């Protein structure tokens, strides 16, 4: 992951990112500075109710260097 060290951050076309709230410490991400939205490759998406709240469970595809590796996630 690249550390932000000032008002301008230099990044490459691909960078390592973390999603700690989903238990993902390292995920390779493609950087698109012209994009108006973001995407996460997920499959097996299911909604469910837990303690009266809407939740979702899904598998995140971690990609490079192991394209078939996934992490099961649940969030509200």
Explain the overall architecture.
This protein is mainly β and 76 residues long. The chain is 0% helix and 49% strand. It has no helices and five strands. It has strands at 14-19, 24-30, 42-50, 53-61, 70-75. Strands 3-4-5 form a three-stranded antiparallel β-sheet, with no helix packed on it. The radius of gyration is 15 Å and the shape is globular. The two termini are 26 Å apart.
Mean pLDDT: 83
Order of helices and strands: EEEEE
* Cα distance spanning the termini: 26 Å
Structural class: mainly beta
β-strand amount: over 45%
Using the alpha-carbon principal axes, give the shape: globular
The count of helical stretches stands at: 0
Strands of the largest sheet, in order across it? 3-4-5
Instruction: Describe the main β-sheet briefly.
Output: 3 strands, antiparallel
- Find the count of extended strands (DSSP E, 2+ residues): 5
Unreliably modeled segments: none
The Rg value, from CA coordinates, equals: 15 Å
- Binned, the helix content reads under 10%
Gist?
The protein has 76 residues and is mainly β.
SSE topology sketch:
Layout: E1 14-19, E2 24-30, E3 42-50, E4 53-61, E5 70-75
Features:
three-stranded antiparallel β-sheet, mainly beta, 76 residues, two-stranded antiparallel ribbon, single chain, 5 strands
């Amino acid at each position: 992951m690249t550390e932000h060290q000032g008002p301008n951050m230099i990044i490459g076309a691909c960078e390592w990112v973390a999603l700690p709230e989903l238990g993902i410490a390292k995920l390779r991400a493609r950087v698109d500075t012209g994009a108006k939205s973001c995407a996460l490759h997920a499959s097996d998406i299911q909604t469910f109710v837990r303690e009266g709240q809407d939740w979702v469970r899904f598998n995140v595809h971690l990609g490079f260097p192991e394209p078939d590796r996934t992490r099961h996630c649940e969030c509200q």
